[in-house]
Write a structure and sequence with these properties.
With 461 residues, this protein is of the alpha+beta class. 25% of the residues lie in helices and 22% in strands. It is built from eleven helices and 19 strands. The strands form four sheets. Strands 12-13-14-15-16-17-18-19 form an eight-stranded antiparallel beta barrel. A seven-stranded antiparallel beta sheet has the order 2-1-11-10-9-8-7, with helices on both faces. A hairpin with a 2-residue loop joins strand 8 and strand 9. Helix 2 runs antiparallel to helix 11, helix 3 crosses helix 6 and helix 3 crosses helix 7. The chain starts with a helix and ends in a 23-residue tail after the last strand. The N terminus is likely disordered.
């Protein structure tokens, strides 16, 4: 058995721990049913369920409402528009969807919930009332749509994602769900994800907080607000979606674009345990592990989807109760169980191919003033720069066609790193956003700003 197949098979003890965790969630949360799945290496490696109906547990093909996980699907559609050049994330909404009363809010602010819009709609509780009460954006936004100054803080907004759904419809010339099906669901093989329930599907229930009785919840169509929370899906479909959010899929979005979605765009709300919000993804740190994904709830249903890129593990939890089961917490726990009990196998080390460009002259130690750094060249052609022996600024850089590198992470994200050459073609120094890195501390032969003392290094007389 090779390392890859070992990495995709769970030990019996791990499987039991996963099953016990969702059994606790169903019992303590008093949920009619809970279904869950764990993904590793892009494959479903475990499914489990627990139910109050003996001998009738749901499997990974049963639909549940997923609430605001829908927002991540909507964000994927918007990122596709950006990648096709039809918009920029910095564009004001009014450039593409004028007359909403929120023209000045940027698309990035809507994606990250920093547009200052209200969290909910005016009028009746929109999740439990007819969409006929909100036939258009005017009814969704109301007369005073802003609660914060745009761009100042993170403030979760369902109307904001309603605007993004309408933006998709305006630029695609078709209903939001039709665009979603053609551009995301069908390419990824998400055949059991839909705007309306398709059998087999769970019914939504409200469980009395102080008695073991329950009643059915209404299932309203969200109408124009569908892009904020309409979808029904299954544990298996969401497992495929989580794998996509981890690794990308060129038919939908590249790995670079999904990584951008998982990068913090907005700080966490004050007092929150989360780590901020990306572009359509919630971010969190649980047990020292960085997670990205989204939670969701609608009357009768709760849902949670998290992924850990470092562990290449994702988990999905779905339950058909209005409250009681902390679906996102349980999903994070499932990731932790697998990652801690059975750490992933590292990818095999592989050298460069003979035809690859290997700029060895930039590898090795460099000095920013007196601070020692090292540059490492990775097999994918990227560079890693980091301090030696002390804390400091580290970053990863992408190779560019002109021979330079662009920062991808940390302080140097977006900055240009280039090797400056002498007349004979040898490398004199590295220039990183005006910082000069030399082969020796304050190399007198390099153009160090301010010059170097002509007497050089010396001790105390």
């Amino acid at each position: 058995m090779d390392a890859l197949s070992e990495d995709l098979e769970l030990l019996p003890a791990t499987r039991r721990a996963l099953s016990r965790r969702i059994a606790l969630a169903q019992s303590e949360g008093r949920a009619p049913s809970v279904v869950a799945a764990v993904v590793r290496g892009g494959e479903v490696i475990w499914e489990g369920s627990r139910t109050c109906v003996e001998g009738h547990g749901p499997d990974g093909d049963v639909q549940y409402r997923i609430g605001s996980i829908t927002k991540t699907f909507t964000a994927v559609l918007v990122m596709r528009l950006r990648d096709e050049g039809l918009l920029e994330l910095s564009d004001p909404l009014g450039r593409h969807l004028p007359g909403t009363g929120a023209d000045e809010v940027t698309i990035a602010q809507l994606l990250a919930h920093t547009g200052g819009l209200a969290a909910e709609t005016p009028g009746a509780w929109w999740e439990r009332s007819s969409a006929e009460l909100r036939p258009g954006l005017a009814e969704v936004l109301g007369e005073e749509p802003f609660k914060q100054v745009p761009g100042r803080r993170h403030h979760y907004s369902n109307p904001g994602y309603t605007l993004l759904g309408s933006l998709v419809e305006a630029l695609r010339g078709k209903p939001w769900e039709d665009a979603l099906r053609a551009e995301v669901l069908e390419p990824l093989g998400l055949e059991r994800t839909s705007g309306q329930p398709r059998a087999p599907h769970a019914g939504g229930w409200a469980v009395h907080p102080w008695a073991d009785v329950m009643m059915p919840e209404p299932s309203e169509d969200l109408g124009i607000m569908a892009a904020a929370g309409q979808l029904w899906s299954t544990a298996r479909d969401l497992a495929r979606f989580a794998a996509f959010l981890t690794h990308g899929d060129e038919r939908v979005l590249s790995v670079a674009s999904v990584r951008e979605m998982r990068t913090a765009e907005a700080p966490a709300e004050t007092g929150s345990e989360d780590a901020g919000y990306g572009l359509g993804t919630q971010l969190s740190v649980r047990g020292g592990r960085r997670l990205a994904g989204h939670g969701g709830s609608l009357p009768g249903f709760v849902a949670g989807l998290w992924l850990s890129e470092a562990d290449d593990v994702a988990a999905i939890v779905l339950a058909n109760c209005t409250s009681g089961v902390p679906a996102s917490t349980v999903a994070a726990d499932l990731i932790g169980i697998v990652a801690e009990a059975e750490p992933r196998f590292p990818e095999p080390w592989r050298p460069f191919r003979e035809a690859d460009r290997v700029p060895l002259e930039v590898c090795g130690p460099w000095y920013w003033g007196t601070a020692a750094h090292v540059v490492r060249l990775k097999a994918d052609g990227s560079l890693e720069l980091g301090p030696v022996g002390v804390s400091g600024r580290a970053a990863r850089f992408r190779a560019e066609p002109d021979g330079s590198w662009t920062g991808l992470t940390g302080y140097y994200a977006g900055e240009t790193l280039q090797a400056v050459r002498r007349a004979d073609g040898s490398v004199s120094h590295l220039d990183l956003g005006s910082f000069v890195f030399t082969r020796e501390p304050y190399d007198p032969e390099a153009p160090v700003p301010g010059g170097v003392d002509p007497q050089g290094w010396r001790g105390i007389g």
